[in-house]
Every structure is written in structure tokens, then in C-alpha cells.
Amino acid sequence: MELFIIFISAAIVNNFVLAYFLGICPFVGVSNKLSSATSMGMATTFVMVITAIVSWLLYNLILVPYNLTFLQIPSFILVIASLVQFVEMVIKKVSQPLYRALGIFLPLITTNCAILGLALFGSMREYSFLENVIFGLGAGAGFTLALVIMAGIREELDLADVPKPFQGAPITLIVAGILALAFMGFAGMI
């Protein structure tokens, strides 16, 4: 039951994008189309789960025993950058259209503060290995959920009669704010 609570908390209640406002760049940049939002969400989820695994091992098996916790942030950044390069190579090899659709946003996963936040939150909360993996999976699912919801709304907005001053970025930011308010309604539930 505790693992389920960690998953739901990371995915919905404490959604990285809509509650912590981490990962806003890909949230706004890739949420134009549902297909690219889904692909970006899955790629980010994969990186988050692998980051949760590797960062837990690195922190608990190397940094803490050797009293090197001051190297936590640089080592986590190095791990994340390496993982993103790996994912980028795999996507380029497996699906050229997806690689082109994600464009510059794929390498930007490296600088996605949601992934660094995941690694730091996991060590700060002192999760066990399994709890950290579930936390990473929940955070990735929540990130994907936020992207997919936003992409669906933005596709509908393309067909809507939006007043000229609100077209583009203004309506996107207004919708993001309303989504954040809606997700705040889950706060206090878990």
C-alpha cells in the first residue's frame, strides 16, 4: 500500500510539472501535438526510472559510505546527461520520425530540472531502492499525464475561437495555470 501511495503522490498529488513547476520547458514546448507529447513523456519516464535506479545506487553505495555527499549534484547531473545521451541514441536508431519530431527537446531532457529534482528528492526523502524506483515511475507517469492533458487541450484550442491577444503563449500559460489549480485540488488527499 505504501508503494501505491508513493506512486499516486508523485503522479498526481505532487506532480512535478503542475505542483512543483519543474520541467516547464518541455511541458510548454512539446505539448503542441498529442503524439509528440506522448513520445516525450515516455522518453522522460524512461530516463526518470533509470535515473531513480542509478542515483539511488550512486548515493547509497558510493557517496554516503565514502562521505562524498557534497558531490551529489554534480554526480547526479553526470548520470542524467549520460542516460539522456543513451536514450537519444536509441530513439535515433529505432525511430527516425520520432527523433525528428522531438527535435531539440530530446537533448533538453538533460537540463530538465524535473529529473534532477527526482534524484534529489529521492535521496532527501531517504526512500528504499524499491520506493525510489516507484517514485521515479510515478513522477514519469505524472509528467506524461501533464504533457498529454496539455497537448489534448492545445489541439482543441487550435480549433477554438481564441481572441487574438490570447493566441499562442498567453492561452497556453493560462491553461497551464488552470491545470495547476485543478491538480492542487488533490493536495491533502494523501
Overview of the structural elements:
The termini are close together. The mean pLDDT is 91. Helix content is 72%, strand content 0%. Helix 1 packs parallel to helix 7 (129-159) and helix 3 (34-63) crosses helix 4 (72-94). It has one domain (2-184). The protein has helices at 2-13, 24-29, 34-63, 72-94, 96-102, 113-124, 129-159, 169-184. The chain is built from 8 helices and no strands. With 190 residues, it is mainly alpha-helical.
Could you list some keywords that capture this structure?
mainly alpha; about 190 residues
Summarize the model shown.
The chain is mainly α and 190 residues long. Helices cover 72% and strands 0% of the residues.
What's the structural blueprint in terms of helices and strands?
Blueprint: H1 2-13, H2 24-29, H3 34-63, H4 72-94, H5 96-102, H6 113-124, H7 129-159, H8 169-184
Question: Ranges with pLDDT <50 over ≥5 residues?
Answer: none
Percent of residues in β-strands: under 5%
Largest sheet composition? none
N-to-C terminal Cα separation, in Å?
12 Å
Structural class: mainly alpha
Radius of gyration using CA atoms only: 17 Å
Overall number of structural domains: 1
The string of secondary-structure elements, in order, is: HHHHHHHH
**How would the global form be characterised?**
globular
> Care to count the β-strands?
0
Helix content: over 70%
Number of helices: 8
Average pLDDT number: 91
